[in-house]
Amino acid sequence: MTRAQGPDDPPPRSFFASARERRLWAWTLSVVVAIYATLGLAATLAGVVPHDVITAAFLLGMLLVGLTILTQGLQVRPGGMELAVALGVGTVYLLALSRLAFPERSHLIEYGVVASLVHEALLERAGQGRRVPAPGVLAVAVTSLLGLLDECLQLIIPSRVFDPEDIVFNVLAATMAVGAGSALRWARRRRRPP
User: Is 114 exposed, middle or buried (0-12, 13-18, 19+ CB in 10 A)?
Assistant: First the structure.
């Protein structure tokens, strides 16, 4: 039997360090559930939905991700170093997307978003005084494990194929997203006050 909370007792410690961290993990869970939910539907949709519609939906998704990044980045007026890093990051992503086939592009976006959310949640947790060893490395590892689970689930779905290359693309997507976010944060910290 536990005793009741007294007036001099410290408040109970929540698992989450802040409401923002909780929201970030909720968004992460939502994105992962959405990715996994499409596993069984992908072959069906590919057979029913015209290729042009799939391409348009993909481009719309890219536009929304880009607008989200842009609006988040413009909350504070960027300096020259931030603009240079952002241009470099954008160029790397455009080159990667232009050289990859459609399925690999989707991995780059899906697991890039997951990695960004996980990384932000871990940074928020660390910023609230909780111990988080190497948030960037941990974000890549967590995202890579989620991508591995995605591929392992495809072993039991008849219309899907387990592909080790997809695991590599998931790790690459996580590494690129965390690296891009870290580079932009670094550039923001280096900016000198006006």
Answer: buried
C-alpha dihedral, 151 to 96 to 105 to 114, nearest 10°: 60
Distance CA 39, CA 166 (A): 13
| 133 conformational bin, left if phi > 0, alpha if psi -120 to 50, beta if neither | beta
Task: List, for residues 10-26, the tens digit of each pLDDT value.
Answer: 555 688 989 999 999 99
pLDDT digits (tens, 9 = 90+) for 113-152: 899 899 999 999 999 999 999 999 999 999 999 999 998 9
- Specify the amino acid at residue 140: V
Long-range CB pairs of 37-42 (<8 Å, 24+ gap) are 39/150, 39/153, 39/154, 39/157, 39/160, 40/157, 40/159, 40/160, 42/159, 42/160
Rounded CA separation 96/111 (Å)? 14
Report yes or no: 103 and 17 within 8 Å, Cβ to Cβ.
no
Decide: 31 and 121 in contact? Cβ < 8 Å.
no
